[in-house]
Amino acid sequence: MPxxxxxxxxxxxxxxxxxxxxxxxxxxxxxNMQLREEIMALCHALxxxxxxxxxxxxxxxxxxxxxxxxxxxxxxRSTEGMYDERRFxxxxxxxxxxxxxxxxxxxxxxxxxxxxxxxxxxxxxxxxAEESQFGLPEVTLGxxxxxxxxxxxxxxxxxxxxxxxxxxxxxxxxAEAERLGIVLRVVPRAQLxxxxxxxxxxxxxxxxxAVIQAKVALNASQETMLSGGLQAENEAWLPCLLSDTWKAxxxxxxx
Length: 255
Ligand code: CAA
Hints:
Blueprint: E1 9-14, E2 17-22, H1 33-48, E3 54-59, E4 64-66, H2 71-75, H3 79-96, E5 104-108, E6 111-113, H4 115-122, E7 125-129, E8 133-135, H5 149-157, H6 159-168, E9 172-173, H7 174-180, E10 185-187, H8 192-204, H9 208-220, H10 226-242, H11 245-250
Parallel strand pairs: 2-3, 3-5, 4-6, 5-7, 6-8, 7-10
Antiparallel strand pairs: 1-2, 8-9
Helix pairs in contact: 1-3, 5-6, 9-10
Bound molecules: acetoacetyl-coenzyme A.
Acetoacetyl-coenzyme A is lined by residues 27-28, 30, 67-72, 111, 113-115, 118, 137-138, 141, 146-147.
């Protein structure tokens, strides 16, 4: 089995579930260039790895999922360097996790800010520990959430609520994030990873082709009008028909 771990992330794979842990706890698992580049490569590798059905993203330590872009690294960059980074990295980064064919879950264990929340928003499902804090503080730093936040958050919680969070830059707690629909549910810290793994295993038990094609169809619902979405649903359904999996699954219902 390949070892995907490195100094900035650990990856553990068991029973079809990959747990990816951002591993920079001394800086609240902030995203430096190395970590972002490694996550982008990992998304491709895990999609191609037959041992993986579902990927869970979480943070090392007991304080943060991810506090966003590494501001120490950012502070040391030139304007040209920042511009190049966006030109060459941005387009891939904003869709790296969201673009995975396999389902993804964010297990949010503490601060989930800026680019950290944008990473969580790329995941299909989000579960949070009770003490987690959420926010997109970029506007307070003279930027805007430029890694998908201005697009994914309003689609998830509505335009007005997204505007309140982004224009004020304020932080909200886990209960509020659950009420707004940013997270699916909130659990005590000790139950966070077990809950995410249980959810992942429930998904992983289903036929792989059906899960992946259902994700294709569901994602289409956010990109198109209803007629186009229904067409996409039909196209996503056909590969399921062409697989023999469904025949085995419905065999016991035969007359
Ligand atoms: N980048 C780099 N280092 C960070 C960091 C970040 N985003 N967030 C925290 N750290 C570092 C701190 O500098 C500190 O390091 P030192 O011990 O070397 O000083 C260490 O992590 C612990 O942080 P604090 O002492 O500040 O811990 P705290 O518990 O008092 O506060 C916090 C925690 C609320 C997360 C606070 O650190 C904070 O506000 N961090 C910045 C969050 C932020 O603004 N994120 C958005 C970044 S912009 C972005 O993400 C947009 C983008 O481009 C995608």
